[in-house]
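Anyone opening a protein record will find just a pair of labelled lines. A complete record is shown below as an example.
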Amino acid sequence: QLQASGGGLVQAGGSLRLSCAASGLTFRWYSTGWFRQAPGKEREFVAALSWSGITTDYAAYVKGRFTISKDNAKNTVDLQMNSLKPEDTAVYYCAARSRVANEYEFWGQGTLVTVSS
């Protein structure tokens, strides 16, 4: 089970740090990702981190502003979001997949990020 937290209301240009905690699985052995869904839109990819923690991938619209990381000791995956824009407003979801899976198997419940202009 994944639990996302850290969402809230922030002004444009501000920062937020989202965190995803896991129970029942160990992030050390899982690839992880963050996705978001804005009102009336499809869910979209934000960032991903390989299980080794070495390889990252970012959507073009967040690259250079967002950073995904994980803390194996705490069993958490974080998304540091800087220079936030109103278009970043969405519910953010964390997800995890095992090394042999092609799709994300586990999803968090989502945390709302609202960026005011």
About this structure: The mean pLDDT is 96. The CA atoms of residues 14 and 83 lie 5 Å apart. The first strand starts at residue 2 and ends at 5.
